Amino acid sequence: MKVLVINSGSSSIKYQLLNMEDESVLAKGLVERIGIDGSRIVHKVNGEKHVIEKEIKDHEIGLKLVLDILVSKDKGVLNSLNEIDACGHRIVHGGERFKTSVRIDKNKLSDIEMLSFLAPLHNPANAMGIKAAMELLPEAPQVAVFDTSFHQTMPEKSYLYGLPYEYYEKYKVRRYGFHGTSHRYVSKRVADILGKNIEDLKIITAHIGNGASVAAVKEGKSIDTSMGFTPLAGLVMGTRSGDIDPAIVGFIAQEEGITAKEVINILNKKSGMYGVTKGFSSDMRDIEDNAIEGEKVSRLAFDIYEYSIAKYIGGYAAAMNGVDVLVFTAGVGENSPILREEICEQYLGYLGVKIDKNINDFKGEEKIISTPDSKVTVVVVPTNEELMIARDTKEIVENKLEELN
């Protein structure tokens, strides 16, 4: 089975074509600046990168160009589009409606669009990708995989806020959590690496990138996670503030003479590492390099970043009454040995965490970095959300075919 994974943003489409017989990536790429001047496709196949600059007015045109490339003689990997057996779509928000991945029909597409009030920047774009795929690949089953669904196992004590209950009843204001596909992939993968049953493990997964979140995974289920009603909550991130006193919103609005909506925009786009470093950078590679060189503001920002992660790890160890495994993943978690070392050595000694500095000196690999006598096994696992989406798609499509047979 060949599965096309589609991650549709407001002005972009990320894609991967996978052969699910061996889970290999046949081709992948990015359609960017859709509807904007300078639109182009960056397509990668057989280790080569191809850049095609072309006017791309909308998502349907963008996806059609992707499909044309996939069957082209010089850049393609397919003889015919009929070889695409299914499409798997990343959907940011499933609300309480979608607790698992689902096969998409018109009713489910309508539900995804209806949930746009919870994710106005993401779900409409995700829906555009689905519509384009349904139009261009009418015979291929379409499957939706939701960032929020993995966290739907959280108990009420984890997801409800200390607000009037009517806001939950009327508007579904609650903790939803995000990065669920990544947290699900790495928690399952680390159990395989250790040769243990995931139902016997208490795992903390730290998805640390420009957007970042930590999750407590007990017996294979998410019981808590740092992001909340929106991805703004939790850890200090690249441009997002993470947790703050909610009264700050009203205070800044009043003092600066701006609206609450404008303050929220600042918290999302001009805060976090970008804000603390006075606009120097939101990229942790830049900040880490400066911190190592002794630049004080970058060192402070790096300390704040690590401290916020460590606090959530400690909190989730308490929430699960212990922890067996700590997993670092995503761009920073996979590629920053110094972050992993400092978090473990400066903050997690009370848990019996010990890491081997020599083994930890690497980037982007799958590896155990804790010492044999560490009471918590610490592992780096590169995330693979596209593979998780493709696996869900394959399983749902094959189960449907079995039902028909």
From TrEMBL:
<dbReference type="GO" id="GO:0006085">
    <property type="term" value="P:acetyl-CoA biosynthetic process"/>
</dbReference>
<feature type="binding site">
    <location>
        <begin position="207"/>
        <end position="211"/>
    </location>
    <ligand>
        <name>ATP</name>
    </ligand>
</feature>
<dbReference type="GO" id="GO:0008776">
    <property type="term" value="F:acetate kinase activity"/>
</dbReference>
<feature type="site" description="Transition state stabilizer">
    <location>
        <position position="240"/>
    </location>
</feature>
<dbReference type="InterPro" id="IPR004372">
    <property type="entry name" value="Ac/propionate_kinase"/>
</dbReference>
<dbReference type="GO" id="GO:0005737">
    <property type="term" value="C:cytoplasm"/>
</dbReference>
<feature type="binding site">
    <location>
        <position position="14"/>
    </location>
    <ligand>
        <name>ATP</name>
    </ligand>
</feature>
<keyword id="KW-0808">Transferase</keyword>
<feature type="binding site">
    <location>
        <position position="385"/>
    </location>
    <ligand>
        <name>Mg(2+)</name>
    </ligand>
</feature>
<feature type="binding site">
    <location>
        <begin position="331"/>
        <end position="335"/>
    </location>
    <ligand>
        <name>ATP</name>
    </ligand>
</feature>
<comment type="subunit">
    <text>Homodimer.</text>
</comment>
<protein>
    <recommendedName>
        <fullName>Acetate kinase</fullName>
        <ecNumber>2.7.2.1</ecNumber>
    </recommendedName>
</protein>
<comment type="similarity">
    <text>Belongs to the acetokinase family.</text>
</comment>
<dbReference type="GO" id="GO:0005524">
    <property type="term" value="F:ATP binding"/>
</dbReference>
<feature type="active site" description="Proton donor/acceptor">
    <location>
        <position position="147"/>
    </location>
</feature>
<feature type="binding site">
    <location>
        <begin position="283"/>
        <end position="285"/>
    </location>
    <ligand>
        <name>ATP</name>
    </ligand>
</feature>
<dbReference type="GO" id="GO:0000287">
    <property type="term" value="F:magnesium ion binding"/>
</dbReference>
<keyword id="KW-0963">Cytoplasm</keyword>
<dbReference type="InterPro" id="IPR043129">
    <property type="entry name" value="ATPase_NBD"/>
</dbReference>
<dbReference type="InterPro" id="IPR023865">
    <property type="entry name" value="Aliphatic_acid_kinase_CS"/>
</dbReference>
<keyword id="KW-0460">Magnesium</keyword>
<keyword id="KW-0547">Nucleotide-binding</keyword>
<feature type="site" description="Transition state stabilizer">
    <location>
        <position position="179"/>
    </location>
</feature>
<feature type="binding site">
    <location>
        <position position="90"/>
    </location>
    <ligand>
        <name>substrate</name>
    </ligand>
</feature>
<dbReference type="InterPro" id="IPR000890">
    <property type="entry name" value="Aliphatic_acid_kin_short-chain"/>
</dbReference>
<feature type="binding site">
    <location>
        <position position="7"/>
    </location>
    <ligand>
        <name>Mg(2+)</name>
    </ligand>
</feature>
<keyword id="KW-0479">Metal-binding</keyword>
<keyword id="KW-0418">Kinase</keyword>
<comment type="function">
    <text>Catalyzes the formation of acetyl phosphate from acetate and ATP. Can also catalyze the reverse reaction.</text>
</comment>
<dbReference type="GO" id="GO:0006083">
    <property type="term" value="P:acetate metabolic process"/>
</dbReference>
<keyword id="KW-0067">ATP-binding</keyword>
<comment type="pathway">
    <text>Metabolic intermediate biosynthesis; acetyl-CoA biosynthesis; acetyl-CoA from acetate: step 1/2.</text>
</comment>
<dbReference type="Pfam" id="PF00871">
    <property type="entry name" value="Acetate_kinase"/>
</dbReference>
